[in-house]
Amino acid sequence: MAGRNGQLKSVVIRSLRRFSERYFPEKATRSSMLDKEQEEASHFGYLDSFPVDVQFLIMTFLSPVDICNLGATCRYWRAMVRDPLLWKYFLLRDMPHWSSIDHLTMPDLDLLDAPLVSEHESLDDRKEEEEKNSELKCDYMSEYLKGCPSCRQQWLPSRPAYELLTSFLHYLMPSSEPRFAMFGPGMEEIDVSFVTRLMHAHDLLPVSGTPHRQINGIGSGISYLFNNQHKFNILTLYSTYGAEREKARLQKGSVSNKLFIFEGTDDAGHPVFTPAPQVQKVCQEVDGFIYVANAEPGEGDGASEAAQIRAVLNFVGDSTAKPLLVLSCVSREPEEASDGAKCRTPCVYVAKRLGLPQLSNRWMVQDTVAESLTGVLDGIAWLLKSSGVKI
């Protein structure tokens, strides 16, 4: 990733320089032509007279909002900040550090596999006036602004008036306690027990009791209190018995998953699973699902995990109404590597590994740490809102 970013950085600077020299030649010679009085009178143009590589370096320190504001200052900067290669560089640089992603803000990762330079991407091959009548095949700027946590709120669709009225009526009516089924390898494979930490984090999510509603073979789960006012229930589904899980974790092996029945493979060679009878009952009873993924580097079986998630979501008739929260979990706070990258699988790649972009359900991937439970509250807040809880 670092090598590709370095290569793309050189391509971006070369593209910006060619475009600047071709369509704004006066920018390149401004610094040598202006005398002292002219420079004082045109101090707003100092940034324009810098070499292109310096201009690019300055832009790398700006936030996305600042870059967009810079593009509103003049025609030159409007053209420069809209270079698709510039935003492709920002995507590759910043995307591994995003802490969450969802069905509305997930960038198209296939765009990043496109060649670094092509006819439609080069600023050198188009004028600013012609941009209005031409569509970029790879709109990296839109993909970045859609997924960046500091910008994504602007991309969320506005709620229609009837939804606001419905939400208000739901707020007036007493709501039942939502129930969620939690499963996934992140509960069993990592060194720190996520479930144990969750049950004992009374300052974060106080345990409010055990409900009377039982599900045969599963139990009633544990109820928690969010923000000291919103009760919700979590049914924990383990793949097998505790002794087998601990043995597999210590030996870095696999266990026979008793939650699913393997049915074979489809025409594309992907595994096909059916939920076990007790899990089928859970799918009918709960209001949503929590999948705890193992985000430790190099972990995860994408094909089987994606197939099991689809099996759970597709079992219920109106499965699209049930949201899916994926907690992308590691044991402890990851230390940054020498190249600045986090020692965990980025949430966008967890979403791709699990096949989430192909789902019709609402979903979210939230980076989580089992030891500190960092990110859990953000994920639970999204899940409750998606289940109709007024927060």
Overview of this protein structure:
The chain is α/β, with parallel strands linked by helices and 391 residues long. The chain is 39% helix and 14% strand. The protein contains 16 helices and ten strands. The chain has helices spanning 2-23, 25-33, 36-41, 46-49, 52-60, 64-71, 75-80, 84-94, 140-147, 161-172, 194-199, 242-250, 277-285, 302-315, 347-353, 376-386, and strands at 100-102, 179-183, 207-209, 222-226, 230-236, 260-265, 271-275, 288-294, 324-330, 363-369. The strands form two sheets. Strands 1-10-9-8-2-5-4-3 form an eight-stranded mixed β-sheet, sandwiched between helices. A two-stranded antiparallel sheet has the order 6-7. Helix 1 (2-23) runs antiparallel to helix 8. It starts with a helix and ends in a 5-residue tail after the last helix. The relative contact order is 0.12.
